[in-house]
């Protein structure tokens, strides 16, 4: 009995000290929330954008919140982002990444070398290798889209949800391009991988937050096991991309066993396929609900089609499309950029103010709130304006201001600094190619002409591209002659 009381007292004291952190004068405003240890975890997880906007109104551009026992300093001034992005000595990208790798993918690499992995990827996602990969991706998109529409007569409309349509097509084409595999191979075909991946993706946020219920834990375990099995040959067979093959060799050289290698394949599947499909969905959703934007994109595509063919010339500039995509990503890309504080550090803001950060805390930028949805930077930030990133003369607009200063970061869907997205050029070309092919080959329209772009699923803030909270129903049919109307 006495031991139980002592243990209980110990626990209470432990909680008290954890909760009892006080702010020193040189530290950012501290908001611990009222619930011991948990702090603001519930509101943060429910709708991070809403919660952090409220905190910004209360505390300003920098503040520290307690979230499930951790102290996280949130920085929301884009003019000050470089002080975090450029510090790779006191701030570290990979330790938080490793926490998520373990929680979501059960992956612990024996000899994790993020810089080597990135160097391998960079080598394959630029220059000649990138051109080659873009070609393979285009062929897969073309084949899958043809398969999708071949079954239809020219007069038959097929109904589908736009999210499912975009995600499944982009995913399967991306999977075949990077991981390899025959479309008609029953055991590991791309459609099968997509079905399992979709189930995995629906539990992803709960895995990341450690909030799976017991039944969900079982489902997550089963789905992961299936995906590991389906990915067993990725990087080992000849039709995998050269990047995948190099990555496999790297894992083997670092001593990762077969099981760990499969787990790493699932991580790479998520990193390479998790954002592109949702981005293509939002872009088509905005185009289908904004007739002027759709007309402008179609007109531009008409002008860059290689004469006598139905192909998009990859060298051609498409500023209107690029602006529409940039605008889409401004509204729907919402990653946290998180760094672990390895040693006490002083953070200098753009206005000269200095704040101390404590070793063991985390720092988190959330560009979705600022710059992306900041009304001081983007007029009517909630509204989709396809030409927001175009000057009056049709050139790319890069001049945006906050507090009278020209901004380096006026939208940040790809992250920035040393950890900027390695796959950006491949992702952009894939989305461009997909939208080009869909608009060329299909008559596609909203099932309900009055339908609006759905709201985002607010539980997904912080993990890259948002996803819609419900489907947007469409119908499509094959065009007799591929043409831009
Ligand atoms: C619309 C599509 C995509 C979006 C919005 C996106 C976004 C991002 C963001 C925001 C980061 C930085 C994370 C941070 O700093 O904490 C990132 C990193 C990364 N992305 Fe993407 N990404 C996309 C597609 C892709 C594709 C297609 C690939 C590969 C083929 C890829 C590979 C990577 C890799 C390897 C990193 C980690 C870089 C590092 O370790 O430094 N991404 N991405």
From TrEMBL:
CC cofactor: heme
Binding site for substrate: 103, 109, 275, 362
GO function terms (MF aspect): heme binding; hydroperoxy icosatetraenoate dehydratase activity; iron ion binding; monooxygenase activity; oxidoreductase activity, acting on paired donors, with incorporation or reduction of molecular oxygen; prostaglandin-I synthase activity
Domain of life: Eukaryota
Gene3D superfamilies registered for this protein in UniProt: Cytochrome P450 (1.10.630.10)
GO biological process: prostaglandin biosynthetic process
Catalytically driven reaction(s): a hydroperoxyeicosatetraenoate = an oxoeicosatetraenoate + H2O; prostaglandin H2 = prostaglandin I2
Location(s), subcellular: Endoplasmic reticulum membrane
Amino-acid positions noted as binding heme in the UniProt annotation, renumbered to this chain: 421
Transmembrane segments: none
InterPro entries: Cyt_P450, Cyt_P450_CYP7A1-type, Cyt_P450_E_grp-IV, Cyt_P450_sf
One Pfam family it belongs to: p450
One term under GO cellular component: endoplasmic reticulum membrane
Residues forming coiled coils: none
Assigned keywords, A-Z: Endoplasmic reticulum, Fatty acid biosynthesis, Fatty acid metabolism, Heme, Iron, Isomerase, Lipid biosynthesis, Lipid metabolism, Lyase, Membrane, Metal-binding, Prostaglandin biosynthesis, Prostaglandin metabolism, Transmembrane, Transmembrane helix
EC number: 4.2.1.152, 5.3.99.4
Lipid bilayer topology: Single-pass membrane protein
Family: Belongs to the cytochrome P450 family.
Functional description taken from the UniProt entry: Catalyzes the biosynthesis and metabolism of eicosanoids. Catalyzes the isomerization of prostaglandin H2 to prostacyclin (= prostaglandin I2), a potent mediator of vasodilation and inhibitor of platelet aggregation. Additionally, displays dehydratase activity, toward hydroperoxyeicosatetraenoates (HPETEs), especially toward (15S)-hydroperoxy-(5Z,8Z,11Z,13E)-eicosatetraenoate (15(S)-HPETE).
Name by which UniProt lists this protein: Prostacyclin synthase
